[in-house]
Amino acid sequence: MSKIYVVSLGPGGKEQMTCRAVKALEACDVITGYNVYIDLIKDDFPDKKFIKNGMRKEVDRCKATLDEALKGQTVAIVSSGDAGVYGMAGIMHEVAAGHPEVEIEVIPGITAACSGAAILGAPLICDFCLISLSDLLTPWEKIEKRLDCAARGDFCIAIYNPRSHKRADYLQKACDIVLRHQDGDVPAGIVHNIGRDGECCEVTTLKELRDHTEGVDMFSTVFIGNSQSKVINGKIVTPRGYHL
Amino acid sequence: MSKIYVVSLGPGGKEQMTCRAVKALEACDVITGYNVYIDLIKDDFPDKKFIKNGMRKEVDRCKATLDEALKGQTVAIVSSGDAGVYGMAGIMHEVAAGHPEVEIEVIPGITAACSGAAILGAPLICDFCLISLSDLLTPWEKIEKRLDCAARGDFCIAIYNPRSHKRADYLQKACDIVLRHQDGDVPAGIVHNIGRDGECCEVTTLKELRDHTEGVDMFSTVFIGNSQSKVINGKIVTPRGYHL
């Protein structure tokens, strides 16, 4: 039976992958992926055939993966973070829909909400939402509605794709929506280059974040606490409600 | 400097931990944790001192961890899934608040939303919420409001602690709230014993889930898709909006 592994790479190098993910990459004949991620891992798996392409070529990448599987190759398509969170797991299933004979196994990994939260402290410890501000695939009106619902429900929020050159004011708009329901003093955090060279973080407030988004880029993940979140020894912590 | 690692174990055995988490456990003198998780890992780390206790003793466990660190030991407190998601990362920071000299490093892992989603296909591929139905630490009214907001925003939803003997009807109540905004045909899934013996999953619909919650217990994680989710070759897939 033809087999495709959708392998989550986690936030950074091999150390942040699971043993299961490493084994799947070792077991396959061909590894496909986005240029940047293939370049990150190829030295660790020297005897594999690699197929790589550029941004926004996700559908082509999945088609190439399926083609290799249909030839009888065991193929791994890699995805940074967790493949099931804004990653390749969904589109791979969609592209292979006409081939139920190809088995697809998704190997989970650590998504940026979790890896970034660990760096900031424990901002997402209870109910939270993940929202991407990229409107390439989702209408901006829908993103706005989700931000409003998340803040109305007093969820902690992890924001993916918070800002790019073309979307320079989206994070500010997002903060304004959250500020309809949350106090400006709610702790907020930014983590840059999670698990990669240049990893660093900033702890701030929702109001300050709103007024100073210029340091945020496509390699950043943004965190906004809920009404109970606080800063302890420089870390953002959202209490679950334990009695100390 | 005294050091505490808060180590995420991921969904199951050592294979689903990251290399970084394994290294932290190897580097420490003492490992603390809930009985069940210590029993799962102790054979892999035979030369460590273990301190374990029972459910609902989270504060005591963190105090014991801090005591060991203050004695100069390097301590790891373990947490299943991701320590930052309904795990030990928050309460550990709270208990150690008076000791800024103790460094706390949270090592992230794979939370049940991600590990369960991988088994079901790709139900959480875009914006989603995590909501726990346990009202031990969160008032039920707040949980109800969050469910309503999540469904109103057309988020995919991962439900933790969906049902127990004492909370036999909570999942049904939760489905009724989601049904205010979502169609009954929206795909839903249940994953039991993720990463452990007896792992299995069911793909169903929101309406069917609502009427048949009896198989769901405290070892289950429940997934509800959004208005775009569909079933492809028996897997739940939420499209992001790519053109095929």
Written description of the protein model:
- Two copies of one chain form a homodimer.
- Chain A starts with a strand and ends in a 7-residue tail after the last strand.
- Chain A is α/β, with parallel strands linked by helices and 244 residues long.
- Chain A has a five-stranded parallel beta sheet, with helices on both faces.
- Chain A is elongated.
- Helix content of chain A is 30%, strand content 25%.
- The mean pLDDT of chain A is 96.
- At the A-B interface, α1, α4, β5, α5 and β6 of A face α1, α4, β5, α5 and β6 of B.
- β7 (128-132) of chain A pairs antiparallel with β7 of chain B.
Record keyword descriptors for this entry.
homodimer, alpha/beta, 30% helix, 5-stranded mixed beta sheet, 5-stranded parallel beta sheet, 8 helices, 244 residues
